[in-house]
């Protein structure tokens, strides 16, 4: 599928739940969250009907997101079923890692093609403060298990919060020194509670890493679906990546759509646009579904307007991280 700016759209980020077992300060309020009722969340059958029809229109890559996707009971069978959809070439997952020790073997057997694990700090007390309820040792155990069972294409995602110290940046980067994984620093985007949080730029972190480890050499190949640009450091097994939607806008290469847990198609992370697909999915109305998808993609904006407008009022967990 091509949008009106001739961009090929072949990637969907599919949220399977708006619930999460953490309460990160830049993502959710401490109290008062109202989650979707079970009947409002897309069922496995609705998701598969959606993916089968998106695949017929050229979608090849699926990223499973949330909330926290590993809180959904049917997650492994769902991944297996999506992997079997004709035309789908890659299924990957993003997770906070809290339950990864439990699921790593099953995800490997389900032939997951890649996994992103969020780790914002390696300080246990700071981790608890950021997530309000999380234990860092559980996430690190999950990361270790993912490496042990041989899950492919493991990436650690770190939000470039303004509080990250030079030592904290280097500690996280060193995860890829001895492990066959990649570390990405993600610019804090002004969505939901993130609008009031200070962030660091790619240049801030780049400078810290070069001061400590020497020259970062550009790595010209893609490592997965995302827009990250990667660099090599001498003596490191993995790569260091940066995702900088504000500082280095990559919208001209945007190849994705998003589906929220309740079936809203979004064509831009920032914009409050898209359309509701739930009725078409519940009634298995293929004609209506494809008409809605085609129409939405033709309205896909040229670029985000993070710095000029309010955008979507939903929290990141409600959109799909």
Automatic annotation (TrEMBL):
Residues 4-227 form the Radical SAM core domain. NCBIfam families: moaA (TIGR02666). S-adenosyl-L-methionine binds at residues 26, 67, 118, 189. Belongs to the radical SAM superfamily. MoaA family. It catalyses: GTP + AH2 + S-adenosyl-L-methionine = (8S)-3',8-cyclo-7,8-dihydroguanosine 5'-triphosphate + 5'-deoxyadenosine + L-methionine + A + H(+). SMART domains: Elp3 (SM00729). It comes from the Bacteria. Monomer and homodimer. Catalyzes the cyclization of GTP to (8S)-3',8-cyclo-7,8-dihydroguanosine 5'-triphosphate. GO terms for biological process: Mo-molybdopterin cofactor biosynthetic process. GTP binds at residues 13, 94, 155, 256-258. Keywords: 4Fe-4S, GTP-binding, Iron, Iron-sulfur, Lyase, Metal-binding, Molybdenum cofactor biosynthesis, Nucleotide-binding, S-adenosyl-L-methionine. This is GTP 3',8-cyclase. Pathway: Cofactor biosynthesis; molybdopterin biosynthesis. Its cofactor is [4Fe-4S] cluster. GO terms for molecular function: 4 iron, 4 sulfur cluster binding; cyclic pyranopterin monophosphate synthase activity; GTP 3',8'-cyclase activity; GTP binding; metal ion binding; S-adenosyl-L-methionine binding. [4Fe-4S] cluster 2 binds at residues 251, 254, 268. InterPro entries: Aldolase_TIM, Elp3/MiaA/NifB-like_rSAM, MoaA, MoaA-like, MoaA_NifB_PqqE_Fe-S-bd_CS, MoaA_twitch, MoCo_biosynth_MoaA/MoaC, rSAM. The keyword Transmembrane helix does not apply. Binds 2 [4Fe-4S] clusters. Binds 1 [4Fe-4S] cluster coordinated with 3 cysteines and an exchangeable S-adenosyl-L-methionine and 1 [4Fe-4S] cluster coordinated with 3 cysteines and the GTP-derived substrate. Its EC number is 4.1.99.22. [4Fe-4S] cluster 1 binds at residues 20, 24, 27.
